Amino acid sequence: MTGTDTFPGPALSPQWEWNHNPDTTKFSVGNGLKLSTATVTNDLYSARNTLTHRIQGPSSTATATLDLTSMRDGDRTGLAMLRDSSAYIGVKRDGGRNRVVMVNGLTMDGNWNTTGTGTEVAGADLPGSKIWLRANADIRPGTGRQARFSYSTDGVNFTPLGTAFTLNNAWQFFMGYRFAVFNHATQALGGSVTLQRFDLTAP
What range defines the domain where residue 78 resides? Predict the structure, then answer.
């Protein structure tokens, strides 16, 4: 469950699961996981090829190292706390420039219809084409547990971004939260990111 995955290939390791049946033409594994955009949407819940990973309890930290070189305008990539109430830290590319953002308010109703596509609550300009995205999740039983997001441009010094995200523990979604890495388009297909490594640590 814990440790580092550098996606040596040729297939994904068994700890990974897709949120939808994947479009196998839109990803490749080998010296990193290349995620090409598979869906044009502003709704993360509708985006195909979002890769999910169980969260190690009682708390753990996921760090995703992403190469952003091949992103295109309108693309959205990031690391999410994924459930029927979700939030993420990620990168938005618009007008040829990248911004790192924290977004919350992604919600679904009891019939799995999207009721909120999210609100950006914090953001910063992002120089360079590589980023480390981090989510720390407290999934102990009980209410009021939180996740916090941060990012780094050097893999060493991490900057908190946005507000703490309070996790929903309603019984209808019994599987609980998962870490999720995504890349989708809002304008047109053709862009990609490479997930160079994924680290999961638990205290």
Answer: 3-201
